[in-house]
Amino acid sequence: MAEALISKSNAKKLIEKLFSNADPRQHRFKSGFLRHSEATYKIAKETAIDIINHNPGLEIDPNEVAIAGYLHDIGRLLSVNQNFHEIRGALYIKNRGYEAGIAENKKDLEGLSGMVISHFIVYEEFLDKCYPGREEFSNIKASLLLPKSIEQQIIVYSDLSNLEGRETNFRERVEHIENRQKDNPHFLNAFERGKPRIIRACTGIEELRKVK
Ligand SMILES: [Fe+2]
Question: Which of 77, 147, 162, 188 is geometrically suited to a Cys-Cys bond with 152, CB 3.0 to 4.6 A?
């Protein structure tokens, strides 16, 4: 079990600090970003608890998953370029998380980083060698971007189960994203390939938490 992870209130302070250092163009997203972080935290925690209750053999730390949920989009605040924010955020947690007060030991930082790196369709975006911004991360192993553990899949599910904080079904959220990005061919290409995978991951999590 992870020990001495950042509290939710300190995670919020960290995000606020990163916002204050971020490009002013990003400031208008702040309230929606914080609502999304809070909701992803809450859904991740509740989901982990439901899964443990229904599957007593599984060892999941709800607090650790919830903190990963709170921080999953932290990479969006580290660059104006939002592409591959999953990797940017994960590397920040892994390499700078100690000074930032995210966790006290390497194992916990790696655990959180591993949950953040594989959310959404970063895997399919990365497989497209021409995807804008990819060159910055060309040394990353593609397999790290595929969520394999239940914890990683809970982050995929929790991220997609709310829209700026309003809880929603992941299928609706997926449609909403598709519509919003309809003028972004690079994104849509990756999305078309990633969509069945993320829906499968979310459906698997829904089944594990026994949502009917
Ligand atoms: Fe994200």
Answer: 147
